[in-house]
Amino acid sequence: MTMTKPEIDPEIFFSREYQDDPYPTLKLLRDHYPVYYNPIGDNWMISRYDDVCAAFRDLENYSAQPNALGIGAVFGPTLMEYDGEQHNKLRNIVAPEFVGRKLDALLPIIERNSIALIEKYTKKHARRIAEEAAKTGEIDIVDDFATRLPLNVILDVLDLPQDAHDMFHEWYPAMMNGIGGPPDIRAAGIKANQEYHDYLEPLLQERSKNPADDLISRLCVAEVDGHRMTFQEIKSFASLLLVAGAETTDKAIANLWYQMLANPEQWELVRNDPSLLDRAFTEMMRVHPPSGGQARRAIHDIPFPEYGVTIPEGAYVNLSIYGGNRDERVFANPDKFDVMRPDLYVGRALRAGYHENGQASHLGFGLGKHFCVGYQLAQTETVIGSRMLMDVMRNPRFKPGTTPKPIAISLDPWELWIEFDPA
Known about the structure:
Shape: globular
Structural class: alpha+beta
Helix content: 40-55%
Number of domains: 1
Number of strands: 12
Order of helices and strands: HHEEHEHHEHHHHHEEHHHEEEEHHEE
Strand order of the largest sheet: 1-2-10-7-3
Distance between the termini: 62 Å
Strand content: 5-15%
Largest sheet: 5 strands, mixed
């Protein structure tokens, strides 16, 4: 006897119910419509882990250029891999062309010079925020910690004068809102980015002649294949650092704290052994990462004979990170936040999906060529910052009278109030 498939109302994807908790719907898709067509949005969604992994890696059939189904792919997973014509309109906001050179050649230099400074300034700012919170015994993890920490760290890493901070707090939201926004908002984002670059120009001139111990100076004198980075390349990276670094990290920090405190037994594990914070971060990136999916366009017809469907050429496709990360075919008890999960790979982030030992990677940073090169920045700030905050608190709990929740698909104001006994 053939089982009847449950019907899915295509309106569900635009509902408050789905925005607040997409996972029950995504399970229905995985079980019954793993490659699903939504006639209302005129787009497709791929929701099983193996299929999402395959699509990420398949550059012959999927183009990453559309970016029409959401903003997740903008904050790192695609921009830092584009070069030449592939930049399309996105480069006008946060990534002017890298003067013909593939960024792959620049990444080792950028990473080597970034991480030490990021660690230094994360400790500085996290310690100050933690000490302030300890005076009152409460903190809004989102506004007081997750939002403030990444942006302040980036400003210090670039060693920008104090009087520039107010301007950055104006440029940052303009650039963020401009990505994927309507023409007038996008124009404001382009303008903010240009003002940012104009501001950096004299600093680059000065620091290339008199380098100090900041990231701009280090990149001014660093060499790639015997050549120094151009000012345009450094300014482009500075834009990406501001937009991708801060946006990804603030949501990662807040989601990590939500998951730890919503699962007290997991909090106790991490509290008793803070070295598990890296594992906790990795599991957070699986169970509820900052980005729920990435957009692609079908370059050709893409058949899925096992499901009896074909994605037509030109169609928009959502590679569901939320769906793949909770695929019970790959992860046992996938809705549970489990720091010691045995089926999740927790070593250096993978670009391939599966490790040779059989463990699967989370999909929170994408895969393959469009893997988010800013992952280490996000993990470093989240882990070090959270460790500093943990040191000043005992018995943290959600503040009574508030409604704790992880970041949702909706853009509603978000807060995560915690109260604690000062350590």
